[in-house]
Amino acid sequence: MTDRELSDQAVAVLVDVARTAGRDLNAGQRLELDRLVSDGLVAVSHSGDPAGKRHYRLTVAGQSALDQRGVGANEA
Asked: CA-CA distance, 41 to 65, in Å (whole number)?
């Protein structure tokens, strides 16, 4: 994980991943998702999806980042 400060959009994407596995992200959020994956805060979920869609999950570091900001999955 890098030491960069998380933007509000990054936090919103982390919350969305926690809630919906990142299924409902727009194009801008997907760019942020790519950054979060490269930073080690989000990972591709390897659980199978019959529709072939990619799902995501928070890593321990991603959950820790939300915890440090005082944000839960039911907030944003």
From this structure: 8
Inter-residue contact 65 to 25 (CB < 8 Å): no
How much of the chain is in helix, strand and coil states, percent to nearest 5?
45, 10, 45
What residues of the chain score a pLDDT lower than 70?
A: 1-4, 48-52, 72-76
Does this model's pTM top 0.90? My answer is no
Mark 34-61 as b/e (b = at least 16 C-beta within 10 Å). ebbbebebbbeeeeeeeeeeeebbbbee
